[in-house]
């Protein structure tokens, strides 16, 4: 069954813009991205939107629908009230480029700040052997499609632009956690303390675990419970727990 | 930069920029948020629930009376470590603090469960959202001009949560002992049970479930290990705690309610409102 929906889409660029009203046909089974494409095909041919797979796996079509950060391709129209306008805006934590397209280069800069996997000494390519239980935790984090909805919704940078230089954001703190939990990562042996650097260089202390990153994750990764809080506990081991510090000193001497 | 476009109005660390979603580089949308759902309901309900508990527990903690009705003791007053505690038959009343302590004995012990819950990862989320609006809800702009999170005093002290966890385990052990004493009658004879015994048992079961589902506990029992395959016992324990941990929020609320209910039950019996129905 089709109906006419009232859409309000943000149109503009870095110099300004506003919500523009459209009335557009919605067919059964469609998602918000389908409607945006219909708008492009009918009355707004110059509407800028980033998209790719239409299957929730490329992370391109991130936007805010009725104020909630979501993937447009994974938001079914049947979930929205047909009598209420559907408001679609670009992500509000990043600089806007045009219409629904934002400049997410902040995330790529943060990605480069996380030191990559350090190959273990004495093992060559093809010689890595890991037990499933040792990599299970990290595998959850590998589901990330880098849609940056978690980065967008995190109030640490969304509401405080000044924190962007010092805070990596949930996606990249999760990356630090993934590497710190990796059974073969040789960072510690190479003199890189990921636990300490999470707190001192990637701004883990700014996270106040209010779980918005987890709420918006389209891959349903438990970012807060399985990555950020365990990473906080690991940082506590390094920086705030005298008993753990003492234990590590004694073990080193024995 | 990967896209070749730097953010237009870069700011330096720690220098407040023009407010968050209204930063000049971002889409110009006058509204601080565009959520049309009832986003305020959850933080409001959380704040109301926590406020109600704070009011009730403050009243009971300062009352210093009606907390023991043999064989039951209120969880707010156990262990009772002041000389002014009422005598409890085989109970956890130790006169650590002498007669100079004239305030309610509950104040001496409640600091530990209070600290445990105050630094708990779930309650932090609850009160940061409910009371401090930081943020009030996801994608709803917070009202504060600056934000440093848990990087500075006093919030950096949230990092001592694991120490409160250790104390919470001790307190839970003592409350388990109290619940076991509930299988006596008022004269101290074993093999009896009343409605109060069930109340204390339900309470201690929820207290243990909440305590063991703690994120610090999850880290201590196994989370800190990098290679689970070398520690199969700890891996198994980590799996159990992780299963509980997934329900940490529900257990936090259930145990908060149960501890208040257990205290109120003892208060009603101790103040003579009704007699404890004996089952056998």
Automatic annotation (TrEMBL), chain A:
Q: Which domain of life is it from?
A: Bacteria
The answer to keyword Transmembrane helix applying to this record is: no
| Every 2Fe-2S ferredoxin-type domain range | 5-92
Question: What is the annotated signal peptide range for this record?
Answer: none
Entry keywords, A to Z: 2Fe-2S, 4Fe-4S, Iron, Iron-sulfur, Metal-binding, Oxidoreductase
InterPro entries in the record = 2Fe-2S_ferredoxin-like_sf (IPR036010), 2Fe-2S_ferredoxin-type (IPR001041), 2Fe2S_fd_BS (IPR006058), 4Fe4S_Fe-S-bd (IPR017896), Beta-grasp_dom_sf (IPR012675), Helical_ferredxn (IPR009051), SDH/FRD_Iron-Sulfur (IPR050573), Succ_DH/fum_Rdtase_Fe-S (IPR004489)
Pathway given in the UniProt record: Carbohydrate metabolism; tricarboxylic acid cycle
Give the required cofactors. [3Fe-4S] cluster; [2Fe-2S] cluster; [4Fe-4S] cluster
Pfam families reported in the protein's UniProt record: Fer2_3 (PF13085), Fer4_8 (PF13183)
Q: Which family does it belong to?
A: Belongs to the succinate dehydrogenase/fumarate reductase iron-sulfur protein family.
> Which PANTHER family has this protein been placed in?
SUCCINATE DEHYDROGENASE [UBIQUINONE] IRON-SULFUR SUBUNIT, MITOCHONDRIAL, SUCCINATE DEHYDROGENASE IRON-SULFUR PROTEIN
What name has this protein been given in UniProt?
Fumarate reductase iron-sulfur subunit
UniProtKB/TrEMBL annotation, chain B:
Q: Which residues form a coiled coil?
A: none
Top-level taxonomic group: Bacteria
- Comp. bias intervals (Polar residues): 1-12
- Keyword Ribosomal protein in the entry? The reply is no
Q: Where is this region: Disordered?
A: 1-25
Q: TM segments?
A: 39-59, 100-123, 163-184, 190-210, 251-274
The name this protein goes by in its record: Integral membrane protein
Which keywords does this chain's UniProt record carry?
Answer: Membrane, Transmembrane, Transmembrane helix
**Organism phylogeny:** Bacteria, Bacillati, Actinomycetota, Actinomycetes, Kitasatosporales
